[in-house]
Design brief:
By secondary structure, the protein is mainly α. The chain has 8 helices and 2 strands.
Length: about 240
């Protein structure tokens, strides 16, 4: 079915999950963790799931609906960042110690260290998100038409290779160029890219289950044969 004007039972729920995953990923990204010998932001345990959501949304509902969710996530994340920034600017109460700090000043410093954002990191995050997510959705939609709906694994993994590759390259380059050596920038990009692609590959059986369940529940399996892929258009 190709009725893009119709309503869907699970679309709003998936949009909400996507937004929560995205915003939470950006909050926990400040912590650097070590996984299998790789040093990565803690967000890698959650952020790749947004690409799985992107795959599911595009595969079931089409690029237009996925585009709607991507922009919804962008603006919700913008609101969260603005709220956290304003919260940091507000003066702390004289008795506020967050339960573990000795003074309001140390509590405020901890708030800024964990939740504070620099303009450079915000630019890197927003640019990488938009480019990566739209490339992921575009590649999957085009491959679906080319493969006539067969080989879902080719579409999910192929789109992730392109989307996550662009996301990692843009974010790491903008955020760390001039801070890390060019060699370490490339190594960090490759490490993040590899981890995310492996993550998506391992999650392929779950993606199949969710996609097939949704297609049956929604009675929808959209093909983007005549879609305008401009990310800034609403139609």
């Amino acid at each position: 079915m190709n009725e893009q004007g119709r309503s869907y039972r699970w679309f709003s729920f998936l949009t909400a999950l996507f937004v929560v995953t995205l915003v939470t990923s950006n909050i926990i990204a400040v912590k650097v963790v070590r996984i299998f010998g790789l040093f990565l932001p803690a967000a890698v345990i959650l952020f790749p799931i947004t690409y799985i959501f992107g795959d599911v949304l595009t595969e079931v509902y089409g690029f237009k609906r996925a585009r709607q969710v991507i922009w919804t996530g962008f603006f919700c994340n913008l609101v969260a960042v603005a709220a956290i920034w304003i919260g940091g600017l507000l003066p702390a109460a004289p008795f506020w110690t967050a339960g573990v700090f000795s003074t309001p000043q140390t509590a405020q410093q901890a708030y800024q260290a964990i939740l504070g954002f620099t303009p450079r990191l915000l630019l890197a995050s927003f640019a990488a998100y938009l480019v990566g997510e739209f490339l992921n959705s575009f590649v999957l939609a085009r491959l679906k038409v080319r493969t006539k709906g067969r080989f879902l694994w080719v579409r999910t993994i192929g789109s992730t290779i392109v989307g996550e590759g662009a996301d990692s390259a843009i974010f790491i380059t903008i955020a760390f160029w001039g801070i890390l050596s060019p060699g370490n920038v490339l190594l960090t990009i490759f490490s993040q890219w590899t981890f995310k692609v492996v993550y998506e590959t391992i999650a392929t059986p779950l993606t199949y289950l969710v996609v097939n369940t949704l297609k049956k529940a929604e009675q929808e399996d959209y093909f983007d044969r005549e879609t305008n892929f401009n990310p800034f258009l609403g139609k």
